[in-house]
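> run fold CubicO group peptidase (Beta-lactamase class C family)
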Amino acid sequence: MAPVLESTARALLRRIAVEQAEGRLPSLTAAVVRDGELAWFGSRGKVDGAAPTTATQYRIGSITKSLVATVVMRLRDEGRIELLDPIGKHVPGTQIGEVTVAQLLSHTSGLSAESPGQWWERTQGVPVERLVASLGPDAAKHRPGRRYHYSNVGFALLGELVARHREMSWAQAVREEILQPLGMRDTTVRPRAPHAVGYAVHPWADVLLPEPEHDAVAMAPAGQLWSTPADLARWAAFVAGDTGDVLSPATVAEMREPATVDDGDAWTGGYGLGLQLARAGGRRLAGHTGSMPGFLATVWADPSDRVGVLFTANSTAGVSRTLLTDLLAILDQHEPRLPDEWEPVADTAGLLEMTGPWYWGPAPYALRLLPDGGVSLNPIGGAGRASRFAAQADGTWLGLDGYYAGETLRAVRRADGSVSHLDLNTFIFTRTPYDPEADVPGGVDENGWRG
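> ok
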């Protein structure tokens, strides 16, 4: 992917310049990723007297959670755990062991947001055994599964799950299974030079206060990692679907599915499995925000057009919530993505006879062949249940989305091999409304349609 146009770069740079100046940020970096490649990078402010680069480390806070979740999903895909397993099965000894792995990944476990004791982000960490023992019944703030309630404690438990299954620290597992394969070699547990120092900016004066930084130990899986804009660009590409050999694209797509929302009917923010979700400007974004004393960071990716945005800053507060969506809006304004060129696809599976109108009772639907060998079944000219289906080895199709996700579509053939009707999880679709020649459940009135 070529870099952005000069006019686009200028508009992007001006946006972060305004952010750094008005937010009074010691330093700020931002980047745009397209089709898996870094298309633009900009920075403002200073780190050690110079402008930060793509190799300057910042603490990334809760973006750490997404990497821990990725190892958890690898364990699931390997058959070592199930998402519905209670955490007590894998981390025994806690009194809140009934919450499931999926609930911890999606922040629906109901557990307390923070660990017992002092503010963990600004005090020395404690061993995991001490943390687990400290989680009594009062750690449960809501019934498991009832609602979204962000829990740093939950990811501390998931980090320990990883450690016990891999027989190594969660950080070593993340490094060996994610960071190294993706080429993210500048993402580390402890800072390395060059790195930014974390600051608090006085609210009423232009002066700085260094923030403490330490090893969070048991709570480290919730927000310990340091990274660079270059490494976070690779992570944005991963979230958008360029997964390498770390996870299958289907598993990452599962992580991006909404498991819960945190703003009710508005549904502008939510959570999947280890990934935060947002809807803004017509886009559905996945990624994660990060916040630790002295640092802010966020990565968002839109898999629908393979674009990502990110920022890092060394300030406890001051970055607006709209910075990254504003960068996406600038990109859309200056360089809207062109649709892929249409090309004909041969009907190698001989499915052309199945295309066209079908009827669920009197409601018309259209079946269309998809370029990947699957099919779509959509209502014609009105509301209804639309789904895409993937071809299966036995000649059926598996629902991918919508109402029929996970359900089986089957073509029922006559003795001569022609298609009589479609059977979609007991629903019968016929070539004419309530075709009396098809096996319509309940039968069709023998007198037919009447006035």
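Residues 352-430 form one domain.
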